[in-house]
Each structure stands twice: as structure tokens, then as C-alpha cells.
Amino acid sequence: MSEQPSEQAAEQVAERPEVLIVDDSKVIRLAARKMLSENYQVHLAEDGQVAWEMLQASENISVVFTDLSMPNMNGMELLNNIRGADSDYIVNIPVIIMTGADDTEATKQAVFDAGATDFISKPFESIDLVSRAKAYAKLRRKVVELEKQTGFDKLTGLYNATSLHEQGAKAFSFSRRHKLYISAVYFEIDNFQDCFLNYGKNVAQHIIVAVGKRLREVMREEDVAARVGVARYVLVLPMTNRHKAEVVISRVRESINKLVFDTGKDKIRVNFLAGFSSPELNEELEFDELMAQGEEGLQRAIDSDSESVVCYADEIEFIEPEPETTEEDIRQAFELILQGNFYQIPDQHLSAVVERVTPFMQYVDNQNEQTAGVG
Asked: What is the pLDDT of residues 31-82, one digit of tens each?
């Protein structure tokens, strides 16, 4: 009977840095896990899509080692997703590219320009893999600890997510104690990931910094402003009801929309989506609930085709898209017709079936007319 690990051993396992190995070769994945498993928690993914889902589900992975040539999502696409992520934790993860003999210098340069942290050649030695894992996991831990200690986002100078919660909660408590209004506003740069992928990291960071500067220019001294994602910002506005919050949002969006970024090839304008919550004084809610409401308002703005600013208290009418009729739906419909069960064809597929049948019926009519003429 195997012994259960002690609590101390379990804690030691939990404290080990987590490393993600991404490669479509099972041999490479298992070899890497064997080399690293003594000192690291090793996660394995067979392609970039699986790795991307794992990264979004966890904020504990410290280093990513990835191959370039993989099905579903290759290494370059995974790297672009990571560097364009909404989460600060994901976007700053060290990404080590595992290169093979077929990878050219031009390919390596392109990957480096896209934000790769380092390279390691396959087949790799244990010492090479372990040394890189150790160096970048340690660096990652120091960066995370430093950001938490300083309380400020290093790019914009605004508060980070940790300080937002601390300072925002204080402002919320003061407002509730003195029966004052307070609002929470979430902003996000629309289609920012496309901008990152099309123009690269330098242009994307320039936009992030410029937007942060504009936010500092329009906010009051008592306001709390933070960057909580790659292109997501939050304002906590004490003594601000719904009408005043709408004025602030309008002022911020007007200021941001005036920005023009010249890439040398194109001129980019930035558009902001916003969601906010401005509860009534008699509403009983906690600070976290206020923030969740503001974030939900933003998500509804993102999902909407017509609204760019959404208040949590309002309802948006979403028009459900017409269901798409597939080739399989058409095939099943014709089978029902042949069986004499045409009344079982779903209504949403009828127009598509008629569209398919119409050319045949026209052909039949033409043939009948020609036959009648001959007769």
C-alpha cells in the first residue's frame, strides 16, 4: 500500500513553479517532463490551442516552452495570443521557443520580434532546459512580487489590479458611510488584439501608454484609476451618480478618440467600449458587487452590435441571429421529402430547401414546355 504524502510534502509540491511544455511530439513532451518534474509542476499540451486554454484557466504557470510547427494553433499564433492577452499575468509570461533544424534564422527573428523571450534548440540537453526554467521562473516570481509591492502598472503609472481593490474599497466605504454616490466604470480598447497582431508589440504598448496618460489628465484627484488588463482600464468615481458618470465617460471617450497613432504605414484611431454601474444610495451592495456590475456592463457592450456604452442597470435588446442551414440540414430535409415526411422539416430550413429545389423545378417546367411544343 502506497504512503500518502505528508502535509509538508504536499505544500512543497504546491510551491513548485509551474511550467507548460507545448509540442505535438509526445516524445518531446515526455522527455521535457522527465527532465523538469523533480523541481517543477509540469503541464503538457499537444498544440497551441490546448496550451492557450490551459493558460486562460490558470494564473500559476510561470514559463512556457513551445514548439513552432504544430496543428490547430502553431507556436507563433500561441505567442501572439499570449502577448495580446487581456490578462496582465498571461501577457508577461516568459515564452521560450523550442526550435528545430528546419526553423530558419528569418523565422527565429520574426518570432523574437513578436515577443519571444528566449530560444532553445531541439534536441535539447537536460541542463539547457532546467537552467532556462530556473532562470525564467525565478525572474517571473520577482516581477510578480515587485508589481504587487509597488501597486502601480509599470507601463501607464496607473494603479494595478491589487491597488485598485485596496484604494477602490476605501473610496467605496467612505461613500457608503456618508451616503454619497459612487460609480465604477470599465473601459476597453475595441479590437485591441487585432491591432497588436497587425502592428506589433511596440505600437500596442505606445497606445496603452497614451491611453493611460489621457485617463490621468481627465480624472479628479479623488478618482481611482487602474489598468487591469492589456487594454482594459477601470475608474472608481466617488461622489458620482449616473448622470455624472455618463459625463465622465463621454469626456474620456472624446479625449481618447482624438488620439491618432502613425505607424509609418497606417494611421490608427482608438475606439473605447465602456460599461458602468452607478447604484442608487439605497442599494445595499458590496464593493466587489459594484465592480462586477461595471464589468458586466462592459461585457454587454462588447457583445452588442450597436451599443458602445452600457449601464449595468439598463437592458439591451439582443437580436438573435438566424440559425444557419448546413449541408447536413439540407440532406436530412431531402430524406424527409423522399419519405413523405416533409412536414417534419424545421421551419428555419424551409427557405434554404426551396432555394435548392427551385432550379430543378424551373428545369422541369422548361422540359415540359419543350415537350408540349413538340407535340
From this structure: 999 999 999 999 999 999 999 999 988 878 999 999 999 999 999 999 999 9
Any domain includes 2 = no
Q: Copy the grid coordinates of residue 22.
A: 507545448
Specify whether the CB–CB gap between 242 and 314 falls below 8 A. no
- Shared domain for 180 and 268, answered yes or no, is yes
For residue 127, the cross-strand partners are none
In a domain, 373, yes or no: no
The per-residue pLDDT for range 200-214, each reduced to its tens digit, is: 878 888 899 899 888
Domain carrying residue 41 = 7-150
Residue reference for cell 437592458? 315
Q: Could you write out the three-class secondary structure of the chain?
A: CCCCCCHHHHHHHHHCCEEEEECCCHHHHHHHHHHHCCCCEEEEECCHHHHHHHHHHCCCEEEEEEECCCCCCCHHHHHHHHHCCCCHHHHCCCEEEEECCCCCHHHHHHHHHCCCCEEEECCCCHHHHHHHHHHHHHHHHHHHHHHHHHCECCCCCCECHHHHHHHHHHHHHHHHHCCCCEEEEEEEECCHHHHHHHHCHHHHHHHHHHHHHHHHHHCCCCCEEEECCCCEEEEEEECCCHHHHHHHHHHHHHHHHCCEEECCCCEEECCEEEEEECCCCCCCCCHHHHHHHHHHHHHHHHHCCCCCEEECCCCCCCCCCCCCCCHHHHHHHHHHHHCCCHHHCCHHHHHHHHHHHHHHHHHHHHHHHHHHHHC
Residue 117 domain flag: yes
What is the pTM assigned to this prediction?
A: 0.52
